[in-house]
Amino acid sequence: MRIGIDLGGTKIEGILLDNQGNERARQRVPTPAGSYPRTVETIIRIVRDLEAQAGEPCTVGIATPGAISPATGLIKNANSTCLIGHALDRDLYEALDREVRIVNDANCFAVSEATDGAAAGAHVVFGVILGTGVGGGIVVDGVPLVGANAIAGEWGHNPLPAPRDGERPGPLCYCGRPGCVEAFLSGPAFERQFSSATGRTLRATDIAEAAAAGDADAAQCLERYCERLARALAGIINILDPDAIVLGGGLSRIGALYERVPILWRPWVLTEPESVQTRLLPPRFGDSSGVRGAAWLWPPD
């Protein structure tokens, strides 16, 4: 049996899976606001509660909104800032008396979808988060690729490829640089683009629904988004050449992405336009992929 923990900014979710990937129990509690010690205590309590239901010790994997720095062994780049600078893996090892595997939440999403999700059985999978931010994770034969700097898959903070005249230098990203993929393709960025073009305010998924209902302004905005996403993913295909790309996050619910993007990326992929083999897929487990992927950080024996 295996336990996965999704450590989010507003909630901590735990799941108990058997070796076939069947869910045996689940628990969700609010994340203690701004308190690292209480966050650790909450994780320990969830693990012990789920183990009591399992009736045996379990492996534990954790999806975090940051990464463990290879240089310091401490959490870095976490939007849950109370985690930054702490040795979360060592603190949990001491409390639970066992190794705990901790990986970025985007990587856990990719692990879930590559293990028993939409891309099950694929050799190389790129998992994409399109939501408040733009993240990514790489999985090869079921194992997440972390990288020498623990930033593998962080495509959101590269420049948007082949920028048009109206896209240079591009919007300022929170990382301090202009023109990042995230500054164009996050949910809030998509909503700002629509508002700027129309003077109207809609949520990202509502823009897509309006486009499907015949709203010409919404359709134009959505097509522009699809074309930018196609350029950005074509760059990933040219470097990584994955078997599958799985979309996650709130914008993954927009059906038009799966129809338009594989057509629009053809001119940018370095192969015959009609023969791009990479599949673009919606997630099987949606919001549950992070916590499931954390559990799958310990593969079946």
**SSE ordering:** EEEHEEEHEHEEEHHHHEHEH
Mean of residue pLDDT values: 95
Q: How many domain regions?
A: 2
Helix content: 25-40%
**Describe the biggest sheet?**
5 strands, mixed
Rg, Cα atoms, Å: 20 Å
Q: Spans with pLDDT under 50 lasting ≥5 residues?
A: none
Helix/strand-derived category reads alpha/beta
Q: Indicate the proportion of strand residues.
A: 15-25%
Named CATH topology of the largest domain: Nucleotidyltransferase, domain 5
Number of separate strands: 12
CATH class of the largest domain: Alpha Beta
Query: CATH H-level name of the largest domain... which superfamily?
Result: ATPase, nucleotide binding domain
Spatial order of the strands forming the largest sheet: 3-2-1-4-7
Number of H/I helices: 9
The second-level CATH architecture of the largest domain is: 2-Layer Sandwich
Descriptive account of the structure:
There is one protein chain. With 301 residues, the chain is of the alpha/beta class. The chain folds into two domains: 2-109 and 287-295, ATPase, nucleotide binding domain (Nucleotidyltransferase, domain 5, 2-Layer Sandwich); 121-283, Nucleotidyltransferase, domain 5, CATH 3.30.420. Helix content is 35%, strand content 20%. It is built from nine helices and twelve strands. The protein has helices spanning 36-54, 88-96, 105-115, 181-185, 187-198, 204-212, 216-240, 256-264, 289-295, and strands spanning 2-7, 11-17, 23-30, 59-64, 67-68, 75-76, 101-104, 124-130, 134-140, 143-144, 244-248, 279-281. The chain has a five-stranded mixed beta sheet. Strand 2 and strand 3 (23-30) form a beta hairpin. Helix 5 (187-198) runs antiparallel to helix 7 (216-240), helix 6 (204-212) crosses helix 7 and helix 7 packs across helix 8 (256-264). The longest helix has 25 residues, at 216-240. The radius of gyration is 20 Å and the shape is globular. 43% of the residues are buried. The model has no long low-confidence stretch (mean pLDDT 95).
